[in-house]
Write a structure and sequence with these properties.
The complex is a heterotrimer of chains A (about 550), B (about 150) and C (about 100).
Chain A lengths: L5 H22 L5 H9 L3 E3 L4 E5 L5 E3 H14 L3 E4 L5 E6 L4 H9 L17 E2 L14 H11 L14 E4 L13 E7 L5 E7 L11 E8 L3 H15 L10 H8 L1 H15 L8 H9 L19 H10 E3 L5 E6 L10 E3 H14 L3 E4 L5 E7 L3 H10 L14 E2 L14 H10 L3 H7 L4 E4 L13 E8 L2 E8 L11 E2 L6 H18 L6 H8 L2 H7 L2
Parallel strand pairs in A: 6-7, 7-8, 16-17, 17-18
Antiparallel strand pairs in A: 1-2, 2-5, 3-14, 4-5, 4-13, 8-9, 9-10, 11-12, 12-15, 14-15, 18-19, 19-20
Chain B lengths: L4 E2 L11 E2 H6 L5 E4 L17 E6 L6 H11 L5 E6 L3 H9 L4 E4 L5 H10 L14 H4 L8
Parallel strand pairs in B: 2-3, 3-4, 4-5, 5-6
Antiparallel strand pairs in B: 1-6
Helix pairs in contact in B: 3-4
Chain C lengths: L1 E6 L6 E4 L4 E2 L12 H10 L4 E11 L2 E4 L2 H8 L16 H5 L1
Antiparallel strand pairs in C: 1-2, 1-4, 2-3, 4-5
The chains are: A alpha+beta (about 550), B alpha/beta (about 150), C alpha+beta (about 100).
């Protein structure tokens, strides 16, 4: 894992003091709320329904036990004993006081964490494959480039006020676990015919009220030129995006309006301009960063065999663990989706437990996923049973990864000022309806994603089944969508038809699921059946 | 409008800046004003006669002027580069990094806050128009020119 | 009735204008008639409220009930965490929101 040197630490420390000064100026009345808002947003501080909310960055979803314990400490000391993992691999706290925020940032800085650019019109926290560094199918670990991107995109002077937010993702596998093409700018590490490593580049994706799937704008970009290229993209967008309508300022709109070919042409022109200007890091700097990501000291000769005679344990292993690149090891997913719980929420005590388990079983490493779960990336298979027992005692051993109860949900109207309807209760009702694990297993992979407004933090456009909460004359109403995906076969979900109330949408969703079970062909997942039959193949079953 | 903050030693231009259109109509004009959204590249062939470029920020949320400034410096412009309009103290450091060397904000900036702000960050992560050496280069002093 | 709500600048807590100061309890809210703008301007300038706004509400036997669900959730707390609301001991508090 990356470690700050004195330069990184000094930058983050300076940021804490800057925000302390800005907060003081606000509290003393030297800044209006209008002036303060963009400053606090660039430090991840929102004013939400009940209090301030602080979003803490977990760069590319990688963190360690020491950092998790600090997050638990912050939850206990400054919040109400819990935190919420988000759909961009960050964590947020719901009950923060403005006067405490600088101290919290100070505490984070002591464990090499920050909230820089977790909101606002800036380059946001870079996301990545949560299995990076462990996945059996990756070409290389994408995190050294993600860390280089973190550094180069923090405090970018030319892009101090971008037209809107800008989200980057990096992966290095043919399987996409990071919803790559739903990002503004996305890089997939590939090897070309000559055997060289480079990036396949995508641009112009995003959810929100006008969803677009990113276009590939370059087949192969040499890794050492990525910052010239990234700045070219940002400059083209910063100069030419609309500034008159906040809903039309994301880069996806510009890419769409120019067309991907013209956009790519303008980027190439700016790229040629930047290349000789010394924007890119030298190989020695990449090597310095990459050295922090050398694999942990895996033991040789560990057995792959585990005793699966306990059916509950066997179900957990089957569902929650994934092939690891090192023999005898597994990637273990920790579900934050207990039936009836709040997707992504975790108590301070659970955070401490996960930190302890990471130390005991995963070289101290933890990952946060965009599906609001956690991962212990490097667990010896022989330790899985002990790990499972410990998780089970803390309510963290649900075996539902990618199943119908593994629901992504934004905080919705229970917490968020932007929301039009509540998301969490809908997720809870669906999970209760499908609580029976045998039925879940029979249904198989089915990704449900719920947003409480069109901003789509709950990724409803990418849900195999999506739900969008809207405000219909002051009451909550829910639209049902089908056919979305955030994997390597990215697709955008389509609305089924008229909306439902809370109970109605759960019923309608169940009818869609049961219809799938009735008409699926052997081996078909829900999304496969939907793609074969189309919306018409489901509509009648939903609107009885 | 408040007083101009200036980070240059030379004499300030005494003529008011004119619009881009007027600048091309008036061969003697040496000061030009660029509004947000105007294409600065049309000025590049004429930089030798420019002493002052004003770049306006109609709202602090409109960040186009940052690119305009940096592009001018990348094109070799060495004259005065002034930010006008909704210039907030918390953005001046970034503006300095993009090549601005004078500021005429709509609302006066508190000099003490500005001084603290400009001194706050010990280093920078990126190359920009101010010549500051990026951290990645400081980490490898043995690399000639990085 | 027209009532005023906002958040406390330093703590972020949801507050309601009770005619004299800002209360944590919606039942204290008073009808401000057509004085909303004047009061909000004064209170905002004095840093006693942040992000204040006027809403419609009705007064009934149970107290003051904001017309919109969003403000009822603000008044009580998250419906999914009754333990964190202003009425943690009342199991039916959530039904007032819906």
């Amino acid at each position: 894992m990356y470690k700050y040197d004195q330069y990184d630490q000094a930058m983050v420390d300076a940021r804490v003091e800057e925000f302390r000064d800005q907060t003081r100026r606000r509290i003393e009345g030297h800044l209006t709320d209008d002036q303060f808002k963009p400053l606090r947003l660039k430090n991840g501080l929102y004013l939400q329904l009940h209090a301030y909310m602080l979003r803490v960055s977990i760069p590319y979803g990688t963190f360690d036990s020491r950092q998790m314990r600090k997050l638990a400490h912050i939850a206990r000391t400054y919040d109400r004993g819990y935190g919420h993992f988000t759909t961009r691999q960050n964590i947020q706290y719901n009950w923060i006081k403005l006067q405490d925020a600088p101290d919290i940032l100070g505490e984070l800085a002591t464990v090499e964490m920050h909230a820089i650019q977790t909101s606002g019109e800036s380059v946001r926290n870079v996301s990545a494959d949560q299995y990076a560094g462990a996945a059996a199918d990756e070409i290389m670990d994408p995190r050294p480039w993600a860390e280089a991107i973190r550094q180069i995109t923090n405090f970018m002077p030319e892009f101090s006020y971008l037209p809107r937010k800008f989200k980057i993702a990096v992966i290095a596998s043919p399987v996409d676990r990071a919803a790559l093409r739903w990002h503004d700018f996305a890089l997939r590490i590939v090897r070309n015919d000559a055997g060289e490593i480079g990036f396949e580049v995508y641009a112009g994706g995003g959810m929100g009220r006008t969803p677009f799937i990113a276009h590939k704008i370059r087949d192969f970009l040499p890794t050492g030129q990525v910052f010239s290229y990234l700045q070219a993209v940002l400059r083209v967008w910063n100069r030419h995006a609309r500034r008159d309508n906040i809903h039309k300022q994301r880069m996806k709109i510009l890419v769409h309006e120019l067309g991907q070919e013209e956009f790519a042409r303008q980027v190439e022109e700016a790229f040629e301009h930047f290349l000789p200007l010394g924007q890119d890091i030298p190989p020695a700097e990449y090597d310095r960063i990459a050295a922090y990501f050398t694999p942990p000291p895996f033991l040789d000769g560990l057995s792959e065999e585990i005793d699966l005679s306990d059916p509950a344990f066997a179900a957990w292993v089957r569902r929650q663990t994934v092939a690891h690149k090192a023999p005898g090891y597994a990637i273990a997913n920790i579900s934050l989706k207990p039936v009836g719980g709040i997707p992504g929420d975790i108590s301070a005590d659970q955070m401490d437990l996960v930190a302890d388990l990471a130390d005991r079983f995963s070289f101290g490493e933890i990952r946060a996923t965009h599906a609001q779960n956690l991962v212990l990336p490097h667990v010896a298979r022989q330790d899985l049973h002990t790990l499972w027992q410990e998780l089970r005692a803390a309510g963290l051993a649900d075996a539902n990864l990618d199943l119908v109860t593994d629901i992504i949900a934004c905080p919705g109207l229970d917490y968020c000022t932007l929301a039009n309807a509540r998301s969490i209760p809908v997720a809870q009702r669906i999970a209760e309806r499908f609580a029976d694990l045998e039925r879940q297993e029979d249904i198989g992979e089915l990704k449900i994603k719920i947003s409480g407004c069109i901003n789509a933090c709950g990724h409803h456009h990418a849900g195999n089944i999506g739900i969008l909460g809207v405000d219909r004359k002051g009451t909550e109403n829910y639209q049902l969508l089908l056919g979305g995906s955030g994997d390597e076969e990215t697709s955008q979900a389509k609305i089924t038809g008229p909306g439902f109330d809370e109970e109605g949408v759960v019923d309608a969703l169940e009818r869609a699921v049961e219809h799938y079970r009735a008409v699926r062909e052997p081996g078909e997942r829900f999304i496969d059946t939907y793609r074969r039959l189309g919306m018409d193949g489901f509509k009648e079953a939903i609107y009885v | 409008m408040s007083d101009t903050l200036r980070f240059r030693d030379d004499e300030a231009a005494d003529e008011p800046a004119v619009s881009l259109d007027a600048f091309f109509d008036q061969p003697e004009a040496d000061s030009v004003r660029i509004e947000a959204g105007e294409d600065v590249t049309v000025l590049f062939p004429h930089l030798s006669r420019v002493r002052l470029v004003e770049i306006d920020f109609p709202r602090f949320r409109d960040g186009r002027g940052f690119s305009t400034a940096r592009m001018l410096r990348e094109a070799g412009y060495t004259g005065e580069l002034k930010a006008t309009g909704d210039v907030l103290v918390d953005l001046v450091w970034f503006m300095r990094r993009c090549g601005f060397d004078s500021f005429a904000p709509d609302v006066a900036i508190d000099p003490a806050v500005l001084e603290a702000s400009l001194a706050r960050y010990p280093n920078v992560y990126q190359n920009a128009a101010d010549g500051a050496v990026p951290i990645w280069k400081l980490r490898h002093p043995d690399l000639a020119n990085g | 009735m027209k009532i005023l709500t906002g958040n406390d600048l330093k703590t972020g807590a949801v507050t309601w204008w009770d005619g004299v100061q800002w209360s944590l309890h919606v039942e204290d809210a008073v009808d401000v008639g057509n004085h909303a703008d004047t009061i909000l301007a004064r209170e905002t300038a004095a840093l006693r409220v942040n992000g204040g706004y006027a809403i419609d509400a009705v007064k009934d036997a149970e107290g003051v009930r904001p017309d919109h669900i969003k403000d009822r959730i603000r008044a009580l707390g998250p419906t999914v965490r009754p333990d964190l609301t202003l009425k943690p001991a009342d199991p039916d508090a959530g039904s007032w929101v819906i």
